[in-house]
Design goal:
binds ligand LZUJQKHR; DapB_C; binds NADPH dihydro-nicotinamide-adenine-dinucleotide phosphate; 11 strands; Rossmann fold; 7 helices; Dihydrodipicolinate Reductase, domain 2; 4-hydroxy-tetrahydrodipicolinate reductase
Length: 234
């Protein structure tokens, strides 16, 4: 397939490597909003840019009816607008806060554990995420997805960065350490013990491979999808 990489930074470059390994053609590598000319002959676009610009990029891609994968975090307050634009244009869009297979399995485990823990109020849940020092947003998109799964199974309704001021808030602790690709831990802490589940990415390869698999999957489809659809976890 002919692929446009929108956001040619750390993730864009990791994605390019996998695309080439899997026999795809990278026909555009952009660090700015795509133009109509950039999008000629593009089968699928993969967008990993930054929270400030992602909405405009995705809107432009969908208005050009380019099937689009986006992994950019920190703009999700506008996801409903993007879903509407996607529908109006009969286009196709996949958003994932984390494209790695491992984290998507971890999401399943998190949902299951949250359901189990509903009956044990002596355990207090918290999330920790650790990322490299260049990361612009906190908490991570993955930590927010984990928190939302816990809200579905508990009386908690909001997350709170680095603490808990309200009874219904779930604390997310965000740490920034040089060169860490992404580590997420969900802990249930009681006076007696702690139960923890943890995912540690060893590199960006898993995120990049998942995004390329999503691009291969979306070609020829219409609608809004997630990695649950791509991986058959629905
Ligand atoms: N969902 C997932 O699985 C994952 C998501 N992410 C997310 O992906 C995003 C990118 O991460 P990462 O690659 O590490 O970040 P980088 O900062 O390394 O890359 C971002 C790139 O976007 C470019 N850019 C700036 N403005 C625009 C624009 N208007 N249009 C297109 N590109 C632009 C930047 O160019 P310049 O340097 O010239 O400004 C830079 O090359 C983040 O939001 C991160 O959280 C990261 C890993 C996995
Ligand atoms: O910025 C990153 O690097 C990452 N961002 C995503 C997030 O915010 O969850 C996914 C991954 O953890 C790496």
């Amino acid at each position: 397939m002919n692929i446009a990489i929108v956001g040619y930074g750390k993730m864009g470059k990791a994605i390019e490597e996998i695309l080439i390994e899997r026999g795809h053609h990278v026909v555009a590598k952009l660090n700015q909003k795509p133009t109509s000319q950039d999008l000629e002959n593009v089968d699928v676009a993969i967008e990993f840019s930054n929270p400030e610009v992602a909405y405009e990029n995705i809107k432009t891609l969908l208005e050009h009816k380019i099937p689009t994968i986006s992994g950019t975090t920190g703009w999700l307050d506008r996801l409903e607008e993007i879903k509407a634009i996607n529908q109006e244009n009969n286009a196709a869009f996949i958003y994932g806060s984390n494209f790695s297979l491992g984290v998507n399995l971890f999401f399943e485990l998190n949902a299951h554990l949250a359901k189990l823990m509903r009956n044990y109020p002596q355990y207090q849940v918290e999330i920790e995420e650790i990322h490299h020092t260049q990361k612009l947003d906190a908490p991570s998109g993955t930590a927010i997805s984990l928190a939302e799964q816990i809200f579905d199974q508990s009386n908690l309704t909001n997350w709170e960065l680095d603490g808990k001021s309200e009874e219904k808030n779930l604390p997310i602790y965000a740490k920034r350490i040089e060169n860490v690709p992404g580590t997420h831990t969900v802990s249930y802490v009681s006076d007696i013990d702690t139960i923890e589940i943890k995912h540690t990415a060893h590199s960006r390869k898993g995120f990049a491979l998942g995004a390329v698999i999503a691009a291969e999957w979306i070609h020829g489809k219409q609608g809004f999808f997630t990695m649950k659809d791509v991986l058959g976890l629905t």
